[in-house]
Amino acid sequence: MPTRGKSINLYLMDGTANGRIKCTLANWTGVAYKIPRTEIDNCKERHDLKQSGVYFLFGISDQTGDNVVYIGQAGARKNGEGILYRLQEHKRNPEKDYWTEAVVFTTSNNSFGPTEISYLENRFCKLATEAKRYLVKNGNDPTLGNITEEKESEMEEFVDYAKIIMGTFGHKVFEPLVGSSPTPVIDPPTIDKEPKLYLSTTKANAIGRRTNEGFVVFKGSTVSAVPTKSCPETISRLRKQHAERVSSEGMLLEDTLFGSPSAAAGFVTYSSANGLTMWATENGKTLKELEGEDESEQSSQI
């Protein structure tokens, strides 16, 4: 059964794409906000931001240039302050000066209690850590809390919707580099049809796959240790950028995403490389040949 589409309502609160955005989905009581740090103080009149909820602080590490995220929860207080108050606290905290944007999840009917927000914080932290897209800045693992199986099922549905919205907001914090499809709420997941591709030389042996973001080289691949004399500067920079992901024996320690098959091939071989001809299936069909088949198939459907 093909995956059905989803209708998402995005409201540009400031009339611009880089301002505050409110997001809702049909038949869902959740509400999400994307708020630039500079616009936090302009949200004081938003009643639903004074409720309980879970929030994400997104930024970039000054030391490494990596994407970072902090995930927290906020309970509604007797003085009427909730999520917004916590965001304002983080804005004043000099130890959290790295973040530039917040994403908030709450509900339209103020239905989140301590159990719900603790569960969601735990699940979101686990998903973000497993995806390895962002450096998760949480110092301690949040507790899962005591939750009934009925409430757990309800919260997992909320998580599924949150994954869709987070991707819509431009943050792939929950999405592994490979092995996943867009998270369906109703339909079963689709099977990734992209074949594994192989690159083998006397000094390297790698496996990878095309994705809708570029090309991923899999953990466990071995890469050339020494650059060729004609190695481009762009490839040298890639090797330096991902140096911590390569062991002293030349083994790739994590799945690694590249912008193109040629960049991936150049990284593996430490040289100038044509990824379309160097990556091939187990049966020897090159990526160039595969893409030719894709074009032929699309033409026949027109």
Automatic annotation (TrEMBL):
<feature type="domain" description="DUF4357">
    <location>
        <begin position="252"/>
        <end position="287"/>
    </location>
</feature>
<protein>
    <recommendedName>
        <fullName>DUF4357 domain-containing protein</fullName>
    </recommendedName>
</protein>
<dbReference type="Pfam" id="PF14267">
    <property type="entry name" value="DUF4357"/>
</dbReference>
<dbReference type="InterPro" id="IPR025579">
    <property type="entry name" value="DUF4357"/>
</dbReference>
